[in-house]
Amino acid sequence: MENSSVRVRFAPSPTGPLHIGGVRTALYNYLFAKKNGGSFILRIEDTDQNRFVPGAEAYIVEAFNWCGIEFDEGVTKGGEYGPYRQSDRKDMYREYADLLIQSGNAYYAFDTPEELNDIRKQLEAEKKIFTYDAVQRTHLKNSLTLSPSEVKNLLHAGTPYVIRFKMPTDQVIVMEDEIRGRVEVNTSVLDDKIIFKSDGMPTYHLANVVDDHLMKISHVIRGEEWLPSLPLHVSLYDAFGWDKPKFAHLPLLLKPDGKGKLSKRDGDRLGFPVFPLQWTDPESGEVSRGYREDGYFPEAFINMMALLGWNPGDEREFFSLAGLVEAFSIEKVGKSGSRFDQEKAKWFNHHYLVEKSNDELAGLFLDVLKEKNIDPGQKNLSYIVGLVKERVNFVAELWEQSSFFFEVPAVYDPQTVKKRWKTDSFEHMKELEVVLKQVQDFSSENTEKVVKAWIEEKEYGMGAIMNAFRLLIVGEAKGPHLFDIIEVIGKEDTLARINRGVEILGKKEAN
RNA sequence: GCUCCGUUCGUCUAGCCAGGUCAGGACGCCAGGUUUUCAUCCUGGUAACACGGGUUCAAAUCCCGUACGGAGUACCA
User: Fold this and answer.
1) CATH of the domain at A241
2) Can you give the pLDDT at residue A66?
3) In this structure, are A453 and A366 located in the same domain?
4) Which of A9, A28, A372, A469 could form a disulfide with A41 if both were Cys (CB 3.0 to 4.6 A apart)?
5) Is A77 labeled as catalytic in the residue annotation?
6) Do A168 and A208 fall into the same domain?
């Protein structure tokens, strides 16, 4: 609000499609930024060249486009703190690593991955866990144990090395998390993390601290999986002598059943998308479904995601993106993980679908019809959609609730036949056909008037007639007001359906 | 193993920070109502403070412990 210097970032790694947990993290960042009149930045963290996946960055951008989440700065927008892709910032990290070496906060380590692995295995055999920490570093191959000339020689010879952060010994690091409050950790349980890799790239830890500082990030809002490395990051800021941003660690999204965080497999197993958009793996060709392709509206998706871990503090449930911005506050974000609930997601979609205008829905429905090679002819799709939209959760479901407007029922549902095709139905329907044949004005209002008058005159049961009638027109016991249906399909089709139904179903003998 | 984080109806959650309401709402489910059917809709119902101590006149709320769960523990982010 009053703080115009709020700057937050979402910093995904382009290693594949964006998980919905990531979408939620980005959403909360966005909401926080907009709520406080700040900027939202998209930074791509591609410091691991081995895990680069083509198309992943484009996917991320497209996903946010679909969601309606806009960035103020970033890979697609540019900005005065660029470049926003870490691979494009490669050169600047080295000097910061050097700064730490000079100040004695970091050191060269020449141990090869193989050597370290051997030690790790050895200790494992003794049921111990190896960590490159204050104790271990004193007898490993690094610039702390080697003489300056030895180090110089190794460096000159081009020996591969990494740069490790020298974790201070026996200090209590006090951290303040905006969601969890105070967290304390003693450095004696921390290890000397690699901050600069032998391939010349920084690790996440160095890169994110340097970039957040350079990009003047005011609040780091990220997933809970980063909480364990917060002490390192805080130590890094201290070692550089930089002001720290505020930190907030969001709870995880959990799988709907069982334990653990939501994974791609859960979606496949339980039949719901774990990604905002459909994704085709460039290597395996494997397709993962997306919310967009599954028929979710972006506003429903966002509304549902926002409420998974945050609440407005009152009983409101429906929020537009702008409404979320207005209502959002980091204090109302929960501490514990949330399970994704598919039923509630559907309910949200239903809500937004019903809220849409019939014209808009008709447009979407027309695409469905085209795919099925159904020609709606002169039929008023808006009107039809308006009659059935309350019965569906998705546009794609509109067809099964309205196919009888376009097609003669292929079969008569056996259950319904058993229940509604009574002994008298045969005669009743034949009579009804004659009655309707004489009707000129086939409007819903008029046919209803005529048919009801006939029923009353003959003292037939309303239910008996109408249910059998519906069976012949629709094929089963479903659908909107019957007279509305026959108005749409018209007199000719209505009479044909009655005629055909009577023929096929025949006269049921009394039991 | 170790470190950190967490734990209110089946699910999302309010309430916890500033102890005192039959622990509230929503989804789901069940029942009833409306209706020519189904769905919508309306009404009602179901169902939770992980456990054990402590502090207190009083604890979901504060403190300690236990259990359970999760995350991290890579030259991945």
Assistant:
1) 3.90.800.10
2) 98
3) no
4) A9
5) no
6) yes
Round and report the angstrom distance from CA (A68) to C1' (B1): 46
The pLDDT assigned to A3 comes to 47
**Nucleotide B41, nearest residue via CA and C1':** A390
Side chain identity, residue A488? V
Point out the catalytic residue in the list A244, A264, A478, A508.
Answer: A264
Among A266, A295, A289, A286, CA closest to A277: A289
Last residue of some domain: A250, A276, A293? A250
Nucleotide nearest to A189 (CA to C1'): B3
Q: CB within 8 A of A130, min separation 6: which ones?
A: A116, A119, A120, A123, A124, A136
Check residue A25 and give its pLDDT.
Answer: 97
> Are A137 and A234 in a shared domain?
yes
User: Based on the domain organization, do A412 and A389 belong to the same domain?
Assistant: no
Q: How far is the CA of A495 from the C1' of B73 (A)?
A: 75
Of all protein residues, which has its CA closest to the C1' atom of B37? A477
Spell out, as residue ranges, where chain A has pLDDT lower than 70. 1-4, 508-511
Q: How far is the CA of A352 from the C1' of B3 (A)?
A: 45
State both tokens at A293: 């392709």
Q: Of A250, A272, A297, which closes a domain?
A: A250
Q: What is the pLDDT of residue A338?
A: 94
Nucleotides of B under 7 A from a protein CB: 1-8, 10-15, 24-28, 36-40, 69-77
Which tens digit of pLDDT belongs to each residue from A452-485?
A: 999 999 988 898 899 999 999 999 999 999 999 9
Q: In terms of residue numbers, what domain contains A366?
A: 357-393
Contact between A430 and A502 under an 8 Å Cβ cutoff? The reply is yes
Structural contact between residues A338 and A391, judged by C-beta atoms closer than 8 angstroms? no
In a domain, A474, yes or no: yes
How many domains in chain A? Answer: 3
Q: Which residue has the tokens 């979609």?
A: A349
